Amino acid sequence: MKKLIFAIIAVLFFQLHTQAQLPADSTKADPSLRGQYEFMLAKSKTINGYKLINPARLGGFWKSVSDSINQNRKQLREVKVKLAEQEKAVAALKAQISGAENSLASSNAKLDEISFLGISFTKGKYNTIVWTLILVLAAALAIVILRSAKFIHEAKYRSSLYEEIAQEYQSYKTKANDKEKKLARELQDERNKLDEYKNKGN
User: Fold this and answer.
1) How many CA atoms lie within 13 A of 14 on its CB side?
2) Cβ–Cβ < 8 Å for 126, 133
């Protein structure tokens, strides 16, 4: 215990003595914190396993550490400010992109819209309706053509049948006329004969 107390007193005395004698170092080999730390340890004396550090060197090292911390904090604040500005810029760009996308969607909707008789349709629906009407009209036209062809065929058949009946009637009429003339001649002959008989009897 006494040895430990004696060692502590000796270290304090030697440190005070060294502080009075050693000036602050004006030059350093490596200005980095690690270089200053290693330089400070290299310049420190060891007594009974303890390092005797010059307070001027320790103060300089502490100042360098504080300056580095302050500089890092300043850089961190600057980075945060730049990051906030970039986030604002990104938000503004996102808003512009969203507006452009909405405008594009609206333009595409207008381009895809067709108005007919005051009713708005998309091109797809309009094409579907138009083609449906075309197909319905084509089917109706086909039905009309088929029925017309049937009626035309029926009309031709009836016309030919009428012509055939008309020809038969005309032939019958001609024959009847001939027969009537023949009967009239025969009747006239009989009358003539009857008149002759009457004249002979008188």
Assistant:
1) 15
2) no
Cβ neighbors of 39 (< 8 A, separation 6 or more) are 25, 28, 29, 30, 57
| Phi, psi for 91 (deg, rounded to 5) | -60, -40
Residue given tokens 């009974």 in the structure block: 48
27-74 pLDDT, tens per residue?
A: 445 666 667 767 767 777 777 777 666 677 667 767 777 778 888 888
User: pLDDT by residue (tens digit) across 7-23?
Assistant: 455 444 444 444 444 44
- At residue 28, the pLDDT reads 47
CA atoms of 64 and 58, how far apart (whole Å) = 10
d(CA 96, CA 173): 101
Check if the beta carbon of residue 22 is closer than 8 Å to that of residue 56.
yes
Strands, DSSP E only, in the chain? 45-47, 50-52, 113-116, 119-122
The whole-number average pLDDT for the span 81-97 is 90
Taking the whole predicted model, whether its pTM rises above 0.85 is answered as: no
56 touches 24 (CB < 8 A): yes
What are the sequence ranges of the domains in the chain? 11-76, 122-202
SS3 80: helix
**Which one is predicted more confidently, 147 or 199?**
147
d(CA 138, CA 145): 10
90 Cα distance to chain centroid: 24
